[in-house]
Specification:
By secondary structure, the chain is of the alpha+beta class. It folds into 2 domains: about 5-105, Orthogonal Bundle (Peroxidase, domain 1); about 110-180, no CATH class. It has 8 helices and 4 strands; from the N terminus they run ααααααβαβββα. It has helices at about 5-20, 25-40, 45-50, 55-70, 75-85, 90-105, 120-135, 165-180, and strands spanning about 110-115, 140-145, 155-160, 160-165. Strands 2-1-3-4 form a 4-stranded mixed sheet. A hairpin with a 2-residue loop joins β3 (about 155-160) and β4 (about 160-165). α1 (about 5-20) crosses α6 (about 90-105) and α2 packs across α3 (about 45-50). The longest helix has 20 residues, at about 5-20.
Length: about 180
């Protein structure tokens, strides 16, 4: 996504977070944004409808009202309607990620992704999480994924930083060193 769209999405995310904070609905709105984006991503027909330029905003809003009636708060409903009016429904995934980042920043929470070659024991994951929490001095949301292509070891993504302790990563570094000779 280009920087112009990132700026637009972050402006919406910031405004929605400010409004949700006034009513102590921050987590609720994040859950609703996730749910809306999940519906859009999982339903191909819905995705076509919301992105089709020939369908008027009023028609899109009516469809969206039918789908999400009673499932989202007034704030989220107003955001969806505003984005439909502005023909910016395609920004919803980026608004969600921007909203999550801003909310985590406000709550002093860091998100990290731990990718392992095989399923790790809960005790090992808890140990890694405790060590990272102590090192960072912040609360940590740790997502764990399994990727057998790593062969062995783990890869930790913490914001922009990547710590590659996988066997696959070591093999690639060795290959690069050998190719440089």
């Amino acid at each position: 996504m280009n920087t112009e769209l990132q700026g637009i999405a972050s402006s919406y995310a910031e405004a929605v977070l400010d409004l949700s904070s006034k009513n102590a609905q921050e987590e609720n709105v994040l859950d609703e944004l996730k749910m809306v984006n999940t519906v859009f991503a999982s339903d191909k027909d819905m995705s076509i409808i919301i992105n089709h330029p020939a369908i008027r905003a009023t028609q899109k809003k009516e469809i969206l009202r039918t789908v999400f009636s009673g499932k989202v708060s007034t704030l989220t409903d107003n955001l969806i309607n505003l984005l439909a009016d502005k023909r910016r429904l395609d920004l919803l995934p980026f608004i969600e990620s921007g909203y999550r980042e801003l909310l985590n920043k406000r709550k002093n929470v860091v998100s990290a992704l731990l990718t392992c070659s095989e399923t790790m024991a809960d005790a090992n994951v808890a140990n890694i999480k405790a060590q990272l929490t102590e090192h960072l001095g912040k609360r940590l949301e740790l997502e764990v994924k399994v990727d057998p292509s790593l062969i062995g070891g783990v890869v930790l993504r913490l914001g922009d930083q990547v710590i590659d302790g996988s066997l696959n990563g070591r093999l690639k570094a060795l290959e690069k060193a050998l190719m440089a000779v």
